[in-house]
Amino acid sequence: MEHTAYKTSKDLIAREVSSLLKEQDCVIIPGFGGLVSRYAPAKVHPVSHVFQAPHKHILFNRSLNTDDGLLVNRLMPLLGMSYAETRHYILSTSEALFNRIMAGERTDLPQVGTFLIDPERNIQFKQDFSVNHLPEAFGLYSIQASPVIRSASPERRQPIVMISRGLKEEVSPAPQKKRYRKLLSAIPAAAVVIAAAWLLIPNMQNDGISGLNIFPSSTPDKLALSAVYQSSMPQVRQSIVLEVEEQGFNAENAKIFLVAGCYTTKNNADGMVNYLNDKGFDSYILDRTPAGLYRVVYGNYNDVSSASEELTAIRKGLNEEAWLLIL
Predict the structure, then answer these.
(1) d(CA 104, CA 322)
(2) pLDDT tens-place string over residues 107-160
(3) Whole-angstrom Cα distance, residue 216 to residue 212?
(4) 256-326: which CATH topology?
(5) Phi-psi region of 134 (alpha: psi -120 to 50; beta: other; left: phi over 0)
(6) How would DSSP label each residue in 270-319?
(7) What ranges do the domains of the chain cover?
(8) How far is it, in rounded angstroms, from Cα 310 to Cα 283?
């Protein structure tokens, strides 16, 4: 079948299949396979943050290729052909469609979805979510959540480290409210002391007042000990800062990858690696997840910016489920 005739017949069949999916739960393309739909509630994608309205989730089944007459009867009046001629028209298009997919060509059925071949030679189908085939949700489409830009938060105070008997203990700064409460609770006691002193001082003799010393001076031993303690404080503080300093995220040491998928067997993972390497990627098996899956990556990158640009291109033309991994 010539390319122009193939594209015209493929687009016509895709349009009618999309229309039938709004009315039926199963639409069979004779000689190619069946599209089965089921109700799917509203959801939000955990990575792209796209809010998806209630819709029909469509699955492809290669085994459902027996003609049930539904698509043929829909195309007969449009083509002006008999039943046998219309069926032959659909079978010819289905054969060309199947051969192109098996040859590795990514094929789109407008308003239905995309077909492609995986490394295991199975036909994979990705639904076109730009069209909502659920009649009850007519007019509701996917929306992208806008990022929330937060203002810079004030710097957090560093925890105080107390060293006692060779053990280190981090003590968080006391909340401001608790210190105010302690200060307020001390005011009544201070007021009682001041009032008592005010009543006792007038009764003292003048010579006794000069000898009264409420705040005795420090002894020479205490002064010497204080000087030694103050001289040692800079070294102690410096050692504390070095011990408390946390090792934050270092962009220069970050390992950035684009994940293509996770596979239960190594043979499947190797098949995906060979497929991606044929596409021009430096793909390899990165590791095994805690669940025992083989994680395949497109390659590693030096910075997040270049990895994000590559991820955008991959999601548009190759794999919508690819994601960014930073270790």
Answers:
(1) 19
(2) 899 999 999 988 888 899 999 888 888 888 877 767 777 666 666 665 565 555
(3) 9
(4) Alpha-Beta Plaits (3.30.70)
(5) beta
(6) HHHHHHHHHTT---EEEEE-TTSPEEEEEEEESSHHHHHHHHHHHHHHT-
(7) 3-144, 256-326
(8) 14
